[in-house]
Amino acid sequence: MTLNEFKAWLKEKMPDNFRENESMQAHTSFRIGGPADLLVLPADVHQLEEVVVKARLENLLLTVIGNGSNLLVKDKGIRGVVVKLGNTIKNIVCQDDKIIAEAGVSLAAVANKAAACSLTGLEFAVGIPGSIGGAIFMNAGAYDGEMSKVVTKVTVLTVDGEIKDLSKEELDFCYRHSSIQDNGAIVISVEMQLAKGNIEEIRAKMADFTNRRTTKQPLDIPNAGSMFRRPPGHYAGTLIEEAGLKGYTVGGAQVSTKHAGFVVNKGNATAADVLQLISDVQKRVYEYAGVHLEPEVRILGE
Ligand SMILES: Cc1cc2nc3c(=O)[nH]c(=O)nc-3n(C[C@H](O)[C@H](O)[C@H](O)COP(=O)(O)OP(=O)(O)OC[C@H]3O[C@@H](n4cnc5c(N)ncnc54)[C@H](O)[C@@H]3O)c2cc1C
Prior knowledge:
It contains nine helices and 19 strands. The protein is of the alpha+beta class.
């Protein structure tokens, strides 16, 4: 099946849930990236399964994204089919001291739901702008909290089209890593074990974390969070600042003057600008400290 034939299939099956030649600028927090050939926004889990199984059966290129808050999409865009789950499939329930959320639910919504149910353990997630699916993929974390500490079970769609539950052990969590990065599975829903807490204390902790972010991070300028992984024994932002690169600019991309671990899009940055900046920063930090910085942001497209 060609991509055009797949488009015709989408038109018949879910005419309101796909876009053609869709700029990824609108779907990434960096506001950078060329077009996706076809972008699908499934209405529910059933549509998600249908699209993924069909695209895989037909050997089409397939990319799944969440909220696009950890992505750098290259300037020529993404070939084939992109399925966006962020803000699409988003049911969420509290069950005793557990929370079960579909992959597209935002971390802010999960943290707020936990607070509303007087459950503690997810306060750290309140300011991370991803979806819960992307957070499992990345093992997202902040302020001593991490997805690995609360997740008990993740339901995935495997590359063979099978719906399967993965235990915490099978998710093989470590720093900004889970087995989803290696096995190509798609996160459908996530079960988290929390503990009963005091709603005022939970809200106060969330407010404190939000306040710390607003003070330290360039939240008013498009970015994709920490550009580099934390190198063992160091902080990327500190090394970049010490190497004299705070404010370093390539085209529209700049090492944030507020937090050197972030790269911001000053308005018209291209992916090529960001990639050049990444390469320059890596070189200069290596010369300065002998440390190789690895991007944390996922780079997609061509
Ligand atoms: C201002 C700002 C602050 C941030 N702060 C933090 C922080 O404190 N801690 C932190 O860890 N991160 C932080 N991030 C980065 C980002 O929010 C997290 O990595 C988040 O978990 C990414 O989720 P997402 O839904 O946006 O994923 P995306 O960026 O859409 O995708 C990231 C990767 O996950 C994959 N993926 C997404 N959804 C699924 C799914 N359902 N199934 C399988 N694979 C999937 C994608 O293919 C891609 O490879 C920050 C980002 C910004 C912009």
